[in-house]
Design brief:
The structure holds two protein chains of two kinds.
Chain A: E1 4-9, H1 18-27, E2 47-56, E3 59-68, H2 76-80, E4 86-88, E5 94-96, H3 106-110, E6 117-119, E7 124-126, H4 132-135, H5 143-146, E8 153-157, H6 164-170, E9 187-190, E10 197-203, E11 215-220, E12 223-228, E13 234-237, E14 244-251, E15 258-264, E16 268-275
Chain B: E1 2-8, E2 11-18, E3 21-27, E4 40-42, E5 45-47, H1 62-66, E6 76-78, E7 97-99, H2 102-120, E8 125-129, H3 141-152, E9 155-158, H4 165-175, H5 189-196, E10 199-203, H6 207-210, H7 220-228, E11 232-236, H8 242-247, E12 250-252, H9 259-272, H10 278-284, E13 285-286, H11 288-295, H12 306-313, H13 317-329, E14 332-336, H14 351-364, E15 416-418, H15 422-428, E16 431-434, E17 449-452, E18 462-466, H16 478-484, E19 491-496, E20 508-511, E21 520-523, E22 541-546, H17 559-569, H18 573-577, H19 582-592, H20 601-607, E23 609-612, H21 625-628, E24 658-659, H22 663-668, H23 692-695, E25 698-701, E26 728-730, E27 733-735, E28 737-740, H24 742-747, E29 755-760, E30 763-771, E31 779-781, E32 814-816, E33 819-822, E34 828-833
Parallel strand pairs in B: 8-9, 8-18, 9-15, 10-11, 10-14, 11-12, 13-24, 18-19, 19-20, 25-31, 28-30
Antiparallel strand pairs in B: 1-2, 2-3, 4-5, 6-7, 6-20, 16-17, 21-22, 22-23, 25-34, 26-27, 28-31, 29-30, 29-34, 32-33
Classes of the chains: A mainly beta, B alpha/beta.
Chain lengths: 277, 835
């Protein structure tokens, strides 16, 4: 039995919105019963792209996170719907029946991901179907995946062990967007932004020269992460734990070592750190 | 359901039609067996592109644009325009239109052409196109449009190289390549970079936004490969651009207009630490000693040290030193502008100097050696250059000039106008400038003086505008509104598919159909001519039969048909059409190409496309490797005039070498202190050191847009309004974003999402404030090319515009006294909350 899954690699997403626009082309004004009816010409984002900007000038990071319906196995929208208006197909795709869901605005509010939209004109809740109508007629992937320039979106049958999507899931570095929602989505992510820490080191007596190759270490209990500043004197630690206490040490012979106690929760830009003699 | 093939300015498409209506547009779905992807082996990996075409985002809005509310449906006449009575030119832009028949419209237009040419002479008619609102050899502007106007005679309008000014006017005098308008040959640089490059410096370049110009997103996967390989990325741009966002790496944000100072300081470090390629400089360049004297301050008393540059650029000394040292230590690719060429820094005051310095910095590191080139990362994939198919930049790729035509009319009128100053010509009667705009025949061509009116020629009385608008793309653009209201323009026509910003200033409006409603043919991404090999930004060369998918909507007609019917009224229709339909012309282009050796017309017509795969025995010839190694040019650069001659190992400069001291500038303008023979850093004539900075302390940069192309697709494809990086919806209006640093916003009590006015003495533009750490403090970023000119008081040139045409604010002063280029990014403004 086919088990559709999607893996989105945020580290490859360039925020081009091709996925969003291909979705709009496929669905705006186009009836694909029984899985969907026409999307309005504006407003709906069956696949949204969240732009996530972090850090401060000039050390900025930007991630783009495409968010379609997560096709949850424990889907709150199925629970919220009356008369079986939202159901899961055998292949895993969650479908809002466009007729039965008429008038059921509660379905929209049930989605913690904000991936369900209300169609005022048609009086119905709507969302991404993985382009089920196309898959059912032989297409291999939804429109959004087809147009992705960087292969940031991988789609396929997780039941087929040879498929690219099965391999990505088997590699076990995928996770749910907002695992705390606990809805067991069929859409998984790689490279979601995690707290990070950056800074730039310079010398008190040679502020005009870059402090390259300085050892910087980050301690948490027995755990030690260590790095060297790059040619600009910059250092960075990524993928830190949320709400964890860290001790940052900067050491270089001839200069006084620096220690800083930090709490990684938000992203931290320590700015310029000057080493004293 | 029927599926047709077509081609846009940024990718081939399959068009699904049901009951005469387009219901789906996707990237061209070719048969898998037609793709034979190339493979590049590097660092133990095999790099090969996926078997598909990857289009630009706006291409996926083509269905929305086709049925847009903005389509011009019927021929229209301004209500208070009477060709036989009161014309009321001052009310252009203020009053409405009434529907008229095609016969009436064409009779008026043909009658006015005849009247004006008879009364004043042929030169009193002028006509101007925009670029790339469509694609295809038959319908493109240099084809159907040019054939008609060359036939009747007119004052042609010369384009300025608006996207790469500094390269055209500056870099040409450093490394030649005037036949490419200053930009380098692109050949096989992807392979070179994958194999050899350790660091890429993206300087004023955002390829994930500008996408190799016409080649969609095919190169995005290349940059992923380079990132996966661990190539270090550095971005120099006042805006933390989208490629920087995607790639990560080091971001340096110089104060706008000071990039040349940064470049000088890098040269200073290399000279003082002797970390430049001294042998290459000795053998492959001229004039280094003069340059060195300037950099070290021996000739002007100012050493161009990192400390000096830090004062100008606002970048810390140690950061400049670090960049210079790492650049010298690693095999570094300079991605200066999208094509290696282009980039916002070349559209600033004295932008020639920056472009020259980009070439010279790489010359100091051995330009052309493995991994060391000038390459924007969006062109230069493997491409079979042995197969010829005409492109619009080649005379044979236009029905105006091609050998496919029996009649090839030559415009009898010698008078010219110059695009950025057309309004000045109309309003002030006289303009003078140097250079023919696109100077692709010699270095000296840039010094040819032009003046308007040409002695013996009349001023322009009839203005025929076609396909787009300049209000969002030129400089100080409210002067275009003033021009349109001048009584000196006795008659104005606008021919377009959509209501563009200039459309509502015409007397007669003619509705053209889109390329989905007519027949044509073309190759994806290939401009030919001065951009030969441009489709090397595509992973697969593909020629597409652009099919008529539906009948023209409403009463629109193809441009070819409109010009045919005008020609008929002027007694020239047999000469114009030679009895050919559009599909007849398309077939003729196919027949003169190399394709018939590979596929029959019938098979091509059935499939709708032909992929020109790279042969298995493909041998790469990286750009300028021949020059670095002192060999004759071995790249397939057909317009290089020295290639295949006894000077085959020379560049296109006077000396044949890279010129630190430009021989051509020294020969033609030795005393020009604004583009001197040795490049100089000159503080901008509108920048942080000028008096206006006290009144207008913020610096506006307006780069090329991310989700539209020129002014195309914006406004006409409303789907784009749901992309907040393109337009932001507030109170039922889709506003143009202005990106402002939080510190500048706080000083002005501006919050994210506020409507703000961007203003200076040239005008006022309303935008929505987007607060971001991605701009340097003191800099406001708002893309150029809004298609929506929406003055609060229609028809009043000084009215605030709420559509986002920030070009209204940019100065119309030329780059420098002998350089007739635009400096859109030398623009001081202030911002305030709009209440």
């Amino acid at each position: 039995m086919t088990q559709y899954r999607m893996v989105i690699d945020v580290s490859r997403c360039i925020g081009c919105y091709n996925c969003f626009l291909a979705c709009r082309d496929e669905h705006a004004g186009s009836d694909h019963r029984p899985v969907s009816i026409g999307q309005p010409a504006s407003g709906h984002k069956w696949i949204a792209v969240r732009e996530d900007e972090r850090g401060t000038y000039p050390k900025v990071k930007v991630s783009h996170i495409p968010i379609p319906c997560q096709q949850c196995t424990d889907a709150p929208c199925i629970t919220a719907a009356r008369d079986g208006a939202v159901y899961r197909r055998a292949d895993g795709i969650v479908v809002i029946d466009p007729d039965k869901a008429s008038g059921q605005q509660d379905i929209v509010a049930a989605c913690p991901y904000g991936a369900i939209f209300w169609n005022e004109t048609q009086n119905v809740a709507q969302k991404c179907t993985f382009c089920a109508h196309l898959l059912d007629s032989g297409w291999k992937e939804p429109r959004c995946v087809e147009v992705c320039p960087t292969q940031a979106m991988v789609f396929g049958d997780a039941g087929d062990r040879g498929s690219a999507v099965a391999a990505l899931i088997a590699a076990q570095d995928v996770e749910a967007l907002h695992p705390e929602y606990d809805t067991k989505p069929l859409v998984s992510y790689r490279g979601l932004p995690k707290p990070y820490l950056v800074g730039e080191v310079s010398f008190c007596d040679q502020t005009q020269l870059p402090a390259a190759g300085i050892r910087v270490s980050l301690h948490r209990g027995d755990q030690v992460l260590a790095t060297l500043t790059d040619s600009f004197g910059d250092f960075e630690f990524d993928n830190l734990e949320t709400d964890a206490d860290y001790l940052l040490k900067i050491e270089h012979s001839g200069y006084r070592p620096r220690e800083m106690r930090l709490r990684a929760g938000a992203d931290l830009d320590l700015g310029s750190i000057i080493l004293d003699r | 359901m029927e599926v047709f093939t077509s081609l846009t300015n940024s990718g081939p498409i399959s068009v699904y039609v049901e009951d005469g209506k387009v219901v789906r547009i996707r990237p061209l779905a070719a048969e898998e067996s037609d793709f034979r992807p190339w493979t590049i082996a590097a660092a133990g990996r095999q790099f090969s592109p996926p078997k598909k075409f990857t289009v630009a985002p706006y291409v996926l809005t083509e269905r929305d644009r086709l049925y847009s509310e903005d389509r011009i449906r019927y021929p229209l006449k301004r209500v208070n325009f009477d060709p036989n009575g009161a014309r009321n030119p001052e009310s252009r832009g203020k009053v409405g239109y009434e529907r008229i028949s095609w016969d009436e419209a064409l009779d008026i237009v043909a009658g006015e052409i005849r009247r004006v040419q008879k009364t004043y002479g042929p030169a009193a008619v002028s006509a101007m196109t925009s670029s790339h609102h469509n694609w295809g050899l038959v319908g493109y502007k240099i084809s159907a449009f040019a054939r008609f106007f060359n036939m009747i005679g007119y004052t042609a309008v010369v384009d300025n190289p608006d996207s790469w000014e500094g390269w055209h006017w500056g870099a040409t005098h450093t490394w030649g390549f005037y036949w490419r308008l200053g930009m380098p040959e692109p050949y096989d640089m992807l392979e070179d970079a994958l194999k050899h490059t350790e660091m890429i410096v993206y300087w004023s370049n955002d390829p994930d936004t500008t996408r190799g110009v016409y080649t969609g997103y095919d190169s995005a996967i290349w940059r992923q490969w380079l990132k996966e390989k661990g190539v270090k990325m550095v971005f120099i741009d006042p805006f933390h651009n989208y490629t920087a966002a995607a790639m990560g790496g080091k971001w340096l944000a110089p104060r706008p207009g000071t990039d040349t100072a940064l470049a000088m300081a890098i040269a200073y470090v290399w000279i003082s630490e002797r970390t430049y390629d001294q042998r290459y400089v000795a053998e492959r360049t001229v004039g280094f000693d003069d340059f060195k004297a300037y950099v070290l301050g021996q000739s002007d008393g100012v050493a161009k040290t990192p400390a000096w540059a830090a004062m100008e650029t606002g970048i810390p000394v140690r950061t400049i030193v670090a960049l210079a040292r790492e650049w010298a230590r690693k095999r570094t690719m300079l991605a200066a502008g999208a094509r290696g060429g282009e980039g916002g820094a070349c559209r600033t005051a004295f932008g020639t100097e920056w472009a020259r310095m980009m070439v010279l910095l790489q010359a100091m590191q051995g330009l052309g050696k493995p991994g060391v080139g000038i390459w924007g990362t969006a062109m230069g994939g493997p491409r079979d250059n042995s197969v010829w198919f005409p492109a619009y930049g080649d005379p044979d790729g236009r029905i105006a000039h091609s050998k496919v035509a029996r009649v090839r009319p030559e415009n009898p009128v010698a008078q010219r106008l110059y695009r950025p100053i057309v309004p000045d010509a109309i309003l002030n009667s006289t303009i003078n400038w140097l250079g023919e705009g696109f100077c692709n025949r010699s270095l000296d061509q840039q010094f040819t003086p032009f003046s308007y009116p040409l002695p013996g020629c009349p001023e322009v009385k009839l203005w025929y505008r076609y396909g787009g608008s300049f209000l969002g793309t030129m400089t100080n653009t409210s002067k275009w509104v003033r021009m349109y209201q001048s009584p000196k323009l006795e008659f104005v026509v606008n021919q377009d598919c959509w209501w563009s910003s200039e459309t509502g200033y015409a007397d007669i409006i003619l509705p053209a159909c889109t390329q989905l409603e007519r027949d044509d043919i073309g190759e994806w991404g290939e401009p030919g001519g001065q951009s030969k090999g441009g489709s090397s930004g595509c992973n697969f060369r593909v020629v597409v039969r652009m099919k008529k998918c539906i009948e023209p909507l409403w009463e629109s007609k193809s441009d070819y048909r409109i010009f045919s019917e005008l020609a008929q009224r002027l007694g020239r229709d047999q000469d114009y059409t030679e009895g050919n339909s559009e599909i007849d012309w398309a077939r003729k282009f196919f027949d003169i190409s190399d394709l018939p050796q590979r596929i029959s017309w019938e098979e091509f017509e059935r499939k709708g496309y032909y992929i020109i795969n790279v042969p298995e025995d493909y041998r790469p010839t990286p750009a300028l490797r021949w020059f670095a190694e002192g060999r004759a040019c071995d790249t397939p650069d057909p317009n290089n005039p020295k290639r295949l001659t006894d000077k085959g190992n020379e560049l296109g400069t006077d000396s044949g070498k890279i010129e630190f001291l430009s021989q051509s500038l020294n020969r033609r303008a030795p005393d020009d202190n604004e583009r001197p023979p040795v490049p100089h850093y000159l503080p901008s004539w509108e920048g942080h050191r000028t008096a206006q900075a006290a009144k207008y302390p913020l610096h506006l940069i307006s780069p090329h847009p991310r989700f539209s192309f020129h002014t195309h697709y914006d406004k006409h494809a409303a789907w784009l309004d749901d992309i907040p990086a393109h337009r932001v919806q507030k109170d039922g209006y889709a506003w143009w974003p202005a990106r402002i640093h939080p510190s500048d916003a706080a000083a002005r009590d501006i919050r994210d999402g506020d409507i703000v006015k961007l203003f200076n003495d040239r005008g006022t533009v309303l935008c929505i404030a987007v607060l971001t750490e991605r701009v340097r403090p003191g800099v406001v970023h708002a893309y150029a090319s809004s298609a929506k000119y929406d003055p609060l008081e229609p028809g009043k040139p000084s009215s605030p515009d709420r559509g986002g045409c920030v070009a209204i604010l940019s100065p119309d002063r030329m780059l420098s006294k002998n350089v007739a280029g635009m400096a859109s990014n030398s623009c001081l403004i202030d911002v305030a909350k709009w209440l």
